[in-house]
Amino acid sequence: MSSSSSNNNNINSVFYADSYHPIQAGSIDGTDILPHDNAVLRAHLCSNAALYDPLGDPKIIGDPYRTIFVGRLSHLTTEHTLRKAMSKYGRVRNLRLVRHIVTGASRGYAFVEFESEREMRRAYLDAHHSIIDDAEIIVDYNRQQLMPGWIPRRLGGGLGGRKESGQLRFGGRERPFRAPLQPIPYEDLKKLGIPPPPEGRYMSRFQVPSPPRKPRRLVEKEEYSHKRSSVDREDLSQRSSSMDRDEHRRKTRGKQDSKKRSRVEEECKHGKSPEDMSEYSPNSTATERDHNYKWSSSDREEHYHSRSTERGEISQKRSSRDKEEHSSKRHRHHSRSKH
Questions:
Q1: What is the model's pTM?
Q2: What CA–CA distances, in Å, run from 196 to 3, 45, 173, 188?
Q3: pLDDT tens-digit map of 22-36
């Protein structure tokens, strides 16, 4: 009786893969130990040989913890239409609609990065199975970068798929693993490196699996870099403003000095001393102008007195020299007349 009730509970129970293993992804209950089609075998060989690098795509941009995968898009959907539809759930930072490398046609899936992890989670919950251009889309987190061991669909891996393709992959949001009804081969799964089903911790089909959260160390690193960049920006702005002030002061002083020099040169041409012009300075106060006036007046008197004294001495020297020359001429003339 207890075994039948547990089987009934397992029929409605599911679980999701935290890491990717090609053989397990090809199994409906996650307990297969052999690949059941050639695509699974190809994906398994690629995984063992490490032929796929999930971070080797040069077109990958943005934070994977803020990025969602959007699948089953209509081939008529454009970047503008998708951005408009995703903007209902938050601020879209980046959007990449994957297109064919030759024809440029849409391949039916895209990656959308939001400004914050909260906005990404809102789109993850609410945009799943919404309609865009008459097509029902599916939304998942960025498994390419966040799911260990990921192998894409083009190499035989991936998740989900349609029944008519014959290559269904389980363990994802759209097609989770069913709780196994048969005994679990733990030893064989351990040899292949396949994580066993989480007995006793199954989920209901109506429960939504939570996408992985960013590790605390990365969050602290981002917060530290953000604070440091803000401090650096503030220091840079203060430095630039102080440099601008210094430059303005230098320019102002240069202009004032040039005006003073030109004024001094102009006054020197007209025979006035630089001190005489201080009283006419528009920036000087009344006390300074009065002081400068008195000082310049006394200075002018001394200047004129010294100049008059110099002129008197020069005139006396000239007169004495003229007298000496005149007397010498008379003496020579007198001596010649005697002879």
A1: 0.64
A2: 20, 21, 18, 10
A3: 999 999 999 999 998
